[in-house]
Amino acid sequence: MPDQIQQMLSMVKDAHKKLDAELKGVSDEAFFGAPKPGDWAISEILGHTMELQWFWMSKIRIILAQDNPKLVRSEGESAGRAGFVATYKGYPREVTMRVLRHANQDILDDIAKLPADKLGRTGTRGDGRVVNIPQQVEIIAKHIEEHANQIKENKRLLGKK
Fold it and tell me: What is the pTM of this model?
């Protein structure tokens, strides 16, 4: 496997490990409770984390198929994101965790299958940044890490594990 693909896999695996570490020992109260009205509960954060992995890998597939596509959410994709967050707010914890493991494995499988000779292809993000595939994977990994930190903060604010 090419080094660049190995590096991308390592970044995402490390982000998954950080997320998993924050989820260890979390009580149901902390899992389903938001620190304050309008904040996401851990279950909702995980719904978003699953969706972002599938969403951004779909955009990487578009980068592979088109020349410098725009990488923005359509109205429907934005509604889908909101739906994912709302759905996982009420799902049983064991279902959420099973689907999270599936989403985590999906992105790793997708990265492993990326054609090494096309990693330099680019797309333009909604903020105007032009990114290649490894840069977009790094953004995904950092986004997952941000949500691991959000979970850590939720636990702190709730005063619970």
Answer: 0.92
